[in-house]
Amino acid sequence: DGGITQSPKYLFRKEGQNVTLSCEQNLNHDAMYWYRQDPGQGLRLIYYSQIVNDFQKGDIAEGYSVSREKKESFPLTVTSAQKNPTAFYLCASSLTGTRNQPQHFGDGTRLSIL
Amino acid sequence: QKEVEQNSGPLSVPEGAIASLNCTYSDRGSQSFFWYRQYSGKSPELIMSIYSNGDKEDGRFTAQLNKASQYVSLLIRDSQPSDSATYLCAVNSGSNYQLIWGAGTKLIIKP
Fold first, then answer.
1. Which of A100, A105, A108 is closest, CB to CB, to B51?
2. 3-state secondary structure of B17
3. Residues of B in contact with A97 (CB under 8 A)
4. Phi, psi of A40 (to 5 degrees)
């Protein structure tokens, strides 16, 4: 089955620790995205990538980093610089990065601070 | 600041009735409009997309777009308890193609 796989489903971070969230897709989509969702709020864009080896900052990139070395993979690292990391993290992909393409989501990762 | 506004709800609708969800947006350059359904604790799921003025129907769902008034709506006919969820409106930015998201409307279908 084609889809987007995020892992782990739940993640706990200790103070001062970096953690990496995995996102893999087998839809052959060019574009991939990372969002953060806080309770009662809309999705906020962290980073996006329209092609391999290229990515752009979204609205709330501070304290996060990404890489796009393979078309199917777009991991997100939450660094110790992100002081309030507790949230629901969603990875999405679209066929291309153009305006008419809808985004499809993985099941998400819930990150909490220990 | 480009914005997408939705009434947070909750919107309570009797089973079998029509649920009407509304969304307004600020970016006049927006060309693509999407409705997603998000069950509690789950990720968003695309249910409708609309690109031109007028109505688009898919089963029990109808999306309506009025670019002049900058609003998009979603009608759900014959509402079922399984339709109870938060509905997110997403609109593409006219400048960089990224999606701008509303905070969502919580819909409750009462049996």
1. A100
2. coil
3. 97
4. 75, 10
Distance CA B42, CA A49 (A): 23
Q: What is the DSSP string of A17-44?
A: --EEEEEEE-S--SEEEEEEE-TT--EE
Q: What share of chain B is helix, strand, coil (3-state, %, to 5)?
A: 5, 55, 45
Q: Where are the beta strands (DSSP E) in chain A?
A: 4-7, 10-13, 19-25, 31-37, 43-51, 54-57, 64-66, 76-78, 87-94, 104-105, 109-113
> Taking CA atoms, what residue in A is nearest to B39?
A107
Instruction: Tell me whether residues B92 and A99 touch, CB distance under 8 A.
Output: yes
Nearest CA in chain B to A33: B98
Q: Could you give the 3-state DSSP secondary structure of residue A53?
A: coil
Nearest CA in chain A to B46: A104
- Residue B57: CB atoms within 10 A of its CB come to 12
pLDDT band at A100 (very low <50, low <70, confident <90, very high): confident
- pLDDT attached to residue A1: 64
Q: Do A100 and B45 touch (CB under 8 A)?
A: no
* Whether the Cβ atoms of residue B14 and residue B76 lie closer than 8 Å to each other: no
* CB-CB contact of B31 with A99 (8 Å): yes
pLDDT digits (tens, 9 = 90+) for B75-87: 999 999 999 999 9
User: Rounded to whole angstroms, how far apart are CA atoms B19 and B65?
Assistant: 16
